[in-house]
Records
---
Amino acid sequence: MQIQSLLAVMLGGSLGALTRYLLGWGVAHWFKASHLPLATFLVNMIGCFLIGLLAAFFESKQWGLEHLRLFLMVGFLGSFTTFSTYIWESAILFRTEHMLAGIINLGAQVFLGLLLAAAGWLFYWSVKPGV
């Protein structure tokens, strides 16, 4: 394992976490009256689209982009999106008797997440610049 790989993941992770925190703060500031965890939903959906887009991008490249891939996909998106928070917030909704909101949160993130990952993939291949 190379030190450059570790640094790429570490730097991407710190920037992804900071971006997630700031976006979460902004969403909470602007959308106060909701039982749905909109901040987590938004970062996860953005992350799903970006992971599809970046997966297509890195698949199309065959030369020396491993550190950039680690920075963006493992580091940045790995800390920007959050499965554990998604599950915890869903559990809170169920525990506080917001059953419908919990079901919507779980189902919408899985279904829309898959659609957005596919959309990111297809978007890249539809506008792909010359390789």
---
Amino acid sequence: MNDPNKGIVGQLLRFGLVGMAMTLATAGAYVLLVRSGLDPFLSLTLAYAGAMLVAYRAHDRFTFQGHGARSQPAQRFGRFVAVNAVGYALNQGFVWLMVVRAGWPDWTPALPIILVTPLATFALQRRWVFN
């Protein structure tokens, strides 16, 4: 019997390790870029794009190694980009809501970027990208 949840705990832990590194790198780069005078939205875009490229390789080779089929790598990468676009939109929403709308300090979106977005993207990556 093929259990669809087999290995999910290990995947979640590995996703957490890779995700934590990538999320902290994204949040740190965002703060550095915004503090250097760049627009908050541009800062997040640059930070997110760089981390996304590294994260694809890490999730493919480490997090979801042995999970799902490995055919159609172009489709898998396209889906990965789409999932990250969802994560990016969430993060931009946090910037808009917290910095633009609420007028909070420019560093505050780093908190939901670290706590919320990774859980949403794990679920999508496991079910759709690396399935």
